[in-house]
Design brief:
about 375 residues; mainly alpha
Length: about 375
């Protein structure tokens, strides 16, 4: 049996609070770099090959976007599970659910609808319309334009498969929050069974309606750490920084080599090998980043400008897709004569998108803080 959580949780350790804010922002920026990948095929799976000539730029893109940076969703789910479980006892679960409907559900619906309006506007001009078509991120491929959808598909595009496809994270997170009492029972009473099942769903990418399969493992891990009062700042005795950093970078490098050098068609053993390397990279990357980059966290969080930026993590999250996808296509179409344009676009455009997102957020928070609060679920209202 585990000791019950106190009715009022103790305040977060100051450095832990800084780490959570740091990784919430950094993970969002890394998310842009994953979604800014501009090689073919565009759609990245753990076992996606590369149909492009090997070069320093193409190698670096795949190494980062489909390797090194892939720990960002696991760490966000773990943070979310930890914080939600840690705040248990502050109010009844029903009240917590109502709060999450406001802070997760409403932003999901609002941003999905807002992006549909923006997408309709983009389709009214030939240049941006072509960018929408070229991006090929519609779930109703090859139909890329809203005018090609039925009414039912438009509703589906709003509620289930939004244009800002990264919103799946909010939807899944909301479902986990709703199911928290049952998840809590499973994690505390049968942790071996829970984590075995969740681990298999994660490893084999098993799709589950509305909740996905990826988040259950890491959201549950965050819950377990909080509910068991586990130490999350001090590395466990088995953690070896160089070993896990080597696994992180080495698995990404080997998977990148396979993506370029193995001739199609891909076999099942090769696909499973790449999937296994991908999963090793996610786990080792999350551990190496969380426990091994404390010096970077301290330096960044000591900077006033960086602490200010952490208030706009959510704006970066909701604005970067499909913005980065459409602007990528425009850059590649109209600047294709520029040497190394694919690499330059990949490296520079995410920073520009992040800057634009922060700028929009800062102006909106200043001009209309009430609207800003609704659109962000109350996030980032503090000014430092």
């Amino acid at each position: 049996m585990t000791a019950p959580l106190p009715s009022v949780p103790t305040p977060l350790d100051s450095f832990l609070s800084q780490k959570l804010r740091f990784w919430s922002l950094v993970a969002m920026v890394l998310l842009i770099y994953v979604h800014a990948y501009n090689l073919h095929p565009r759609y990245l799976q753990p076992f996606t090959p590369v149909n492009e000539p090997l070069g320093p730029g193409t190698w670096l893109q795949y190494f980062l976007a489909n390797g090194v940076l892939r720990f960002r969703i696991p760490i966000l789910f773990a943070i979310s599970g930890y914080l939600f479980a840690r705040r248990e006892g502050t109010e009844p679960h029903g009240q917590r659910v109502r709060r999450r409907l406001r802070t997760l559900g409403l932003p999901y619906l609002f941003w999905s609808l807002l992006w549909l309006a923006v997408l309709w506007a983009l389709e009214q001009f030939p240049v941006t319309r072509q960018a929408v078509v070229d991006a090929e991120i519609s779930p109703f491929w090859p139909r890329q334009l809203l005018g090609q959808y039925s009414v039912g598909e438009l509703v589906q595009r709003w509620l289930v498969v939004p244009a800002p496809f990264q919103l799946w994270f909010l939807r899944s997170l909301l479902m986990y929050n709703l199911a928290y009492p049952w998840l809590r029972v499973a994690i505390l009473r049968k942790p071996a069974i829970y984590f075995s099942v969740a681990g298999l769903l994660w490893f084999f990418m098993v799709p589950l309606p509305l909740v996905e399969g990826d988040g259950l493992l890491f959201f549950g891990l965050g819950m377990w750490l909080a509910l068991r009062h586990q130490e999350v700042l001090v590395p466990p005795h088995w953690f070896r920084p160089m070993l896990f950093a080597g696994l992180w970078l080495g698995s990404a490098a080997l998977k990148t080599w396979l993506a370029f050098y193995v001739e199609p068609p891909f076999s099942l053993p090769l696909g499973l090998s790449m999937l296994a390397l991908h999963r090793v990279g996610e786990i080792s990357g999350m551990l190496a980043a969380w426990f091994g980059l404390n010096g970077l966290v301290r330096w960044c969080m000591a900077q006033t400008w960086f602490r200010w930026l952490t208030g706009f993590s959510f704006m970066i999250y909701v604005l970067h897709v499909p913005l980065v996808n459409y602007t990528t296509e425009l850059a590649l179409r109209y600047w294709r004569a520029v040497p190394h344009i694919h690499l330059l676009t990949y490296l520079a455009l995410p920073l520009l998108v992040a800057a634009v997102s922060v700028g929009i957020g800062a102006v909106l928070r200043w001009v209309a803080p009430g609207i800003y609060a609704v659109l962000t679920g109350g996030r980032g209202l503090a000014t430092s």
